Amino acid sequence: MKRTIYLVVIAAFLLISACKPKTPTPTPEPVPSATLPALLPTNTSLPETAALPTETAAAATNTPAPAGPSAVVDYSSAVYLDDRSNPAAMLYSLANAFNRHEYIRAYSYWSSPMDYLGILDAFSNTYANVSSVQLTLGDIYSEGAAGSIYYSAPSVFTFTHSDNTAEKASACFLMRLPQPANFGEPPIELLKISKGGFTPVAAGISDSDALTSACYGTDYSTAAAGNPPLSHDLETLSNLGPDNYIDNRSGAVEVMSSLFNAINRKEYVRAFSYWQDPAAVGNYADYAAGFANTGLIHITFGTVVSDAGAGQYYYSIPVAQTVENTDGTTQIFVGCYTLRLANPGMQAVMPFEPLGIVKGKNALVANDVGIEPLMERACN
Asked: Which class is 13-66+236-380 in CATH?
């Protein structure tokens, strides 16, 4: 009898998905009315040419374990790191873009790259023979002013060329993050480098001496604000609550974590920005209104499956949402999202397009139904 009831529940879920119902209201995540198109045959590995690492491991609730200290942050060419959650993470991402020869992505971390890097082609040619980059960070300080947070970060980049010669450059970067909650409609501005370029460091100068002098003579260091220096660690992905800030486009789990973190922080314009085609979720006003009764969303991720074709990388990820509504009710939704990234090494014109969501579907399920079997079929 229990088996019969269980099969009926599963059949009901499949029937809901097949009929493509509209997302119930209130909705924890507005989704397009159309269901996902059939994905290409699953690949277990992507081509070696500047491909993102294949994501096939099942993620636990609220993503993998948090990153360790900065000494072990991997920004080599073997990984893909595109993270603007904090200043250190963005500078690791910049070094990673150099290491992967994704110069348009590196260029995109500046708000006005022409002022400090010149034109994109010249910038790319300057670093074309760089084989690897090593980053050393100094103390990063912050200061709040006029609805934005400013960060100054002394940095040293050691560029090793294909002929094994090396040269150093120092920089004092001023980064600006306009408070995401202050945006009432798209577009949104997120963390970028506002000021600072690379200054050659003479041979024999140590990293510590170069860091000490990097911000000397600038008029934008935020050290005088008196705030303690910030951590060089990456942000934790295990906490999607409003007391954390995640803006990470390094992979499917990271993007989805950023999306639900933005919703939990009521930064709906930021949440909207993770959709590559806004038409997939309708106009912004309706999108934001869909969260009027949403309190806090808890997430469980399933197995990420990746695929590639014609310079495009696709990821599908099952997601279960447990939504605590402001009226005291709880709802559970199970669904699937598809994300896309145009090969960063092949993107040729600004603006750079990061990994983003292209499709999504959700179904409301009973609160007492086990989600595991539903998650296994959510992206089928």
From this structure: alpha beta
